[in-house]
Design brief:
about 350 residues, alpha+beta, elongated
Length: about 350
């Protein structure tokens, strides 16, 4: 009887010892190698809308097809816009018959200005998207991406200024009465608009990405400003890991990260911490557009979670990203061999279990 009690006591002590070890490991690892399964792949979703109205005459993409910036997605019927150009050109000819200078240079300059304005419009919209991403997710984009977008906008502005100067010289060549003639000014503006509308009749991809959905067929009448498809950008994609507040105590920018994707079970990928969140919405209102973090409900109050932006430079990993996909993340905040090894082993086990979950 005494032996049985002694055995039970030993087993109880062993269980308590193991429990204590696990408790200590949990507390320490939560600071040095924080883990979360509340990671999601985030990115930009761009509704693609035509700038002019017209019937769809050609469709260059399929559902879930990959496109590059500048690729033609849809073609609207060009004929109404080509006719408008001919009418505008005729108006210029009629308006300049009494003017000695040739109107050919005016038409050419007006055409270049129309194209330059279209390019400026696209560059401005892309720059606005970049600024929005930088405001909402600081560090989500690289300085190279920002510089490229800003350079494209500045170049487009310069091209418009150059085209306007060229058009002004062409107007002056018509004679003193040419630029002041209301009919000539109106005819030139009509030509600019007609050329711009023709340019907008070709709906192009504003950025690299994937066509996620569209319900458009040949003959569909597309209205200006109304989305006809959705483009998921694959150049502006990142991982948002929602980590507990006490996980952030030792975390720093550029800390090494390992993560796994459900789409690639058994594989572990490397990344790094790009930025740490400084605020989340905590009430019913979300003033200023702060990120909203869903919390798990349990017996004990779960610590507040904050978004941590994770990036990966491996281009092959980006092909696996699916917006909204779940990500398991481990952040290594130091060089502790034991803690890092245990955290890595834990993630490997989870990666194997992702085959069946």
């Amino acid at each position: 009887m005494k032996k049985d009690k002694s055995s039970i006591k030993k087993v109880s002590l062993i269980v308590l010892l193991i429990t204590g070890i696990f408790f200590v490991w949990y507390v320490i690892s939560d600071r040095y190698t924080p883990y979360t399964d509340q990671g999601r792949i985030q990115g930009l979703i761009t509704p693609v809308s035509p700038r002019v109205s017209g019937f769809v005459t050609d469709i260059k993409v399929d559902l879930h097809s990959r496109v590059n910036a500048g690729d033609t997605l849809f073609q609207l019927d060009k004929r109404p816009f080509e006719i408008a150009i001919l009418i505008a050109e005729a108006e210029i000819d009629n308006s300049t018959q009494s003017v000695a200078a040739s109107s050919a240079s005016v038409k050419s300059s007006a055409g270049k200005l129309g194209v330059a304005k279209a390019q400026l419009d696209r560059a401005q919209r892309n720059w606005n998207r970049v600024q929005k991403v930088m405001e909402e997710n600081e560090g989500a984009l690289s300085e190279s991406d920002k510089d490229q977008s800003e350079t494209a906008l500045l170049q487009a502005i310069e091209q418009v200024a150059s085209a306007e100067a060229s058009l002004e010289r062409s107007k002056q060549s018509l004679g003193d009465s040419g630029p002041d003639n209301p009919k000539i000014r109106r005819a030139i503006q009509n030509l600019e608009k007609a050329l711009l509308d023709l340019e907008f009749s070709t709906v192009i991809a504003p950025t690299d990405g994937v066509i996620e959905s569209f319900e458009v067929d040949l003959g569909y009448y597309a209205n200006a400003g109304q989305p006809i498809t959705t483009l998921i950008s694959n150049s502006d994609v990142w991982i948002q890991a929602n980590l507990k507040e006490n996980n952030l105590s030792r975390m720093e920018i550029d800390d090494e990260v390992e993560f796994l994707l459900d789409i690639a079970p058994g594989k572990i990928f490397l990344g790094k911490v790009k930025s740490l969140g400084f605020g989340v919405a905590t009430g019913e209102t979300n003033k200023g557009g702060l990120p909203t973090i869903s919390e798990k409900k349990g017996w004990l109050q779960d610590p507040q979670r904050f978004p941590v932006i994770i990036t990966c430079d491996d281009p092959s990993v980006k092909d696996l990203y699916r917006l909204g996909g779940q990500v398991d993340v481990v952040v290594y905040t130091g060089d502790n061999f034991v803690l890092n090894g245990v955290a890595g082993l834990r993630l490997k086990i989870i990666s194997m279990l992702s085959y069946v979950r």
